[in-house]
Write a structure and sequence with these properties.
Elements (H helix, E strand, L loop, with lengths): L3 E4 L2 E4 L3 H8 L2 E2 L2 H11 L4 H4 L3 E5 L1 H9 L5 E5 L8 H17 L3 E5 L3 H5 L10 H13 L7 E5 L4 H12 L4 H8 L7 H11 L4 H6 L5 E6 L3 H13 L6 E5 L26 H9 L9 H7 L7 H10 L3 H12 L5 H26 L3 H4 E2 L2
Helix pairs in contact: 7-17, 8-10, 10-12, 13-17, 15-17
The chain binds tryptophan.
């Protein structure tokens, strides 16, 4: 039995994604589905071809609908608790790409109550304000179309969301939530209710339009459980169940399955300055041999080398160039120091560009935000 645990609020152990798919009852994103997507998008994002997005729920149904002329919208979200990391960008980048390729509208939920309710160390909900704004700017900077994208905070948009959340909540029992999320009798009642808020944007457009509109939710696989519970309820309310596209976690630089915010050098934050990035990358796990001599002789394993993995997940979109990087790792042609210096440079260039876009995002914020 693989020894790991994945919940929306905690990831422990080394995640085996094949085992996880079985546990969650989600389907692998296979060749046939990828080809079906490609028919419409012409090319495929490397998140799809490299199995960074690796599983789905009813994506085939969603494409049936699309092929019948029934366009879908996209929904994803981010619960603010601190600055965003590189890993947090992945579902948003996928959503932005899908928006462009399918001309889809996007709903982005910012459940600004979630972490306050679920995390003991967040004691003052008002103190989250600057973090929320910072997160929203990071999200806008990814390049969403302002005409087709709506972002809303749960507490600002509650006038619309709350009524729908009650319709969901009435159909979910306490024992279902306890089972699904592993909550105990000590959990506060806000936390128990929260999943019904996260369900709402998955059918909100159908409510607004007065007829059913298909919805696709790109998310990190730890979020699946919310929708495992909600999809049935949404169906019972008479709406389409949302389709889901699941991604893996960006591993931590120190080799953890998910970047951990408690290990200081594990995660790179979008606000990290160049020196910090270089320092963190220098500490990364490379899986290389103990000495330069041995490395040259035996080579290393790209799957265990976090520098290689960061290229794969985000920083080398060109497959041929990626293969070259992997090959030189395998053959021991590149030593850790050089390898890390290259990656740090690449990350810093990316972050510099991102922060420019973030500055420009400030003046666009009003175009994106919904309030009730
Ligand atoms: N719960 C998510 C988080 O912890 C935020 C979120 C809200 C979300 N709605 C979503 C994530 C829909 C993915 C899809 O960040």
């Amino acid at each position: 039995m693989a020894d790991f645990n994945v919940t929306p609020w905690n990831v422990e152990g080394k995640v085996d994604y094949e085992v996880l798919e079985k546990r969650f009852g989600i389907k692998p994103l296979d060749e046939q589905l990828l080809n079906r997507i490609k028919k419409h998008t012409k090319d495929l994002h490397f998140f799809l071809t490299r199995q960074i997005f690796l599983a789905h729920r009813e994506l085939d149904w969603l494409l049936d609908q699309y092929e019948k002329g029934n366009k879908f919208y996209l929904y994803t979200g981010r619960a603010p608790s601190g600055g965003m990391t590189l890993g947090h960008l992945i579902p948003f980048m996928m959503t932005r790409w899908l928006q462009e390729k399918f001309g889809a509208e996007v709903y982005i939920q910012i459940p600004d109550e979630e972490k306050f309710l679920a995390k003991k160390d967040i004691t003052d909900i008002d103190k989250l304000r600057p973090i929320i704004e910072d997160n929203v700017l990071d999200i806008i900077a990814i390049g969403f179309d302002p005409k087709k994208t709506k972002i809303f905070l749960d507490t600002d948009y509650a006038g619309v969301l709350y009524k729908q959340a009650c319709r969901v909540a009435k159909r979910i029992t306490f024992s279902t939530v306890k089972d699904a999320f592993g909550l105990t009798n000590e959990a506060n009642i806000g936390w128990i209710f929260y999943t019904s808020m996260q369900a709402v944007p998955a059918f909100l457009k159908s409510v607004e339009e007065g007829h059913n509109v298909p919805c696709l939710i790109p998310l990190a696989v730890d979020q699946d459980v919310h929708f495992r519970v909600a999809r049935d309820v949404i169906g019972k309310l008479g709406y389409y169940k949302p389709a889901i596209l699941h991604c893996k976690f960006l591993p931590g630089l120190m080799g953890d399955s998910k970047m951990s915010s408690s290990v200081e050098t594990d995660a790179i934050y979008l606000n990290d300055n160049p020196e910090t990035v270089t320092k963190k990358v220098n500490k990364a796990l490379t899986g290389q041999q103990a000495t330069a001599e041995l490395q040259k002789k035996h080579g290393g394993d790209p799957d265990k080398c976090m520098v290689c993995q960061y290229y794969k997940f985000l920083f080398e979109p060109d497959d041929k160039k990626l293969e070259k990087i992997f090959e030189s790792e395998r053959k021991g042609k590149i030593l850790a120091g050089e390898h890390k210096a290259d990656l740090a440079k690449r990350i810093n260039r990316f972050l510099e560009e991102h922060r420019k876009k973030k500055e420009q995002a400030r003046s666009k914020m009003d175009q994106f935000m919904l309030k009730s």
